[in-house]
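Researcher: Structure prediction, please.
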Amino acid sequence: MVTPTFKFAVLLKPSDAQPALDRAAQYARVNKDIEVVAIRVVNEFKEADIDQIRIKENSNFEALKRSYASIENFSFKVIFSKEVATAFTDECRNGNYNIAIISANKRHTLRDMFISNIDSSIMRNSSIPVLVVRTATATAQLGQSVVLAIDFHEVAHLDKLDDYLFDAASRFAKSFDGQVHLANCVTPQNSGLMGGNLDQSKIVAGGAINPIGLHLKLADEFAKKHNIEEKNIHVIQGRIDEEIPRLCEQLNARMVCMGTTPRSTFLGSLNSSAGELVLEQIKGDVFIVNSNGIL
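Model: Predicted structure follows.
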């Protein structure tokens, strides 16, 4: 038996619908080297009932295995913890996993957008890349684009993180038989400005580059470095949670790849993370990489 070369940590939901596991099964179907570890974090329990709960969860997993017969290397781990996100990220950190896959939890109120619920907490704190899946069935066709969203002028911007994200986006795009599209969303200082694609002639008199021109220049340099076609470069102005989903819809994108750093406003604690807001609006997956996990 060949030892698997990729190990996925999949967080199971306490329900019948398992988008994250569905997505992992799709990858495992085409790559037999993938090992899928289904992780169930039980957060409501009494110490005296742990043994009985463990027996029940193991029985549930046996039924799950029959439903996901395409996963050849499939195992299960049950963890008892009051803090689901912390328990899962700890397991990801200590278990030699390559990718964590979780199902998106729908936010129901405005208050939810400012609270680190399970999925957003995992996105912020995971030491390995996180793939967040809304639904696995709506985005299963080939030929779809992968949007690589980078803010080249962000204060905590890291070139190494950008290169890592490009490599990941390229691998995803290859498996989808699709293309990588580079997106740089410029948030206007004047909130009244309209969003949309920007012309590459945005240069002020005298040859000085205005902020938009600088973003265009940096995006063009990155694209040339990684052989991204000019037609696949998108510098857009507006709110990231509006413009990235709009671009994804135009491109019929299967996923968005984004990064975060400890100092980045991208997954900041004071306001809702860009990644979470984008996730709420797009039909595809969001792939999040925290620089702590690769640097």
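Model: The chain is about 35% helix and 20% strand.
Researcher: Thanks, that helps.
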